[in-house]
Amino acid sequence: MLIKKMALTVLIITVTGCANTDALEGSVSSLNQKVDMLTNKVDALTDEVASIKNQQNKSNKAIEDVKSSVDSANERMNNIAASYKK
Description:
Layout: H1 2-85
């Protein structure tokens, strides 16, 4: 009797396992699609961040150039003002 119950239990587990395989494959497929979508989004964001960093570097260079020009102009103005004081 015990052997019949164990055999029946094994049979039920085997059938149940086979029945869940299709659902499991569908779930894995769905997860793979989601991972692919997220990978594409990460790649797009990485490209966008690289572009923003490039723009920021250009802006920083332009700001440094403007500061240098302002410093030169201030020095010229100070020299002109000093020449009037003499």
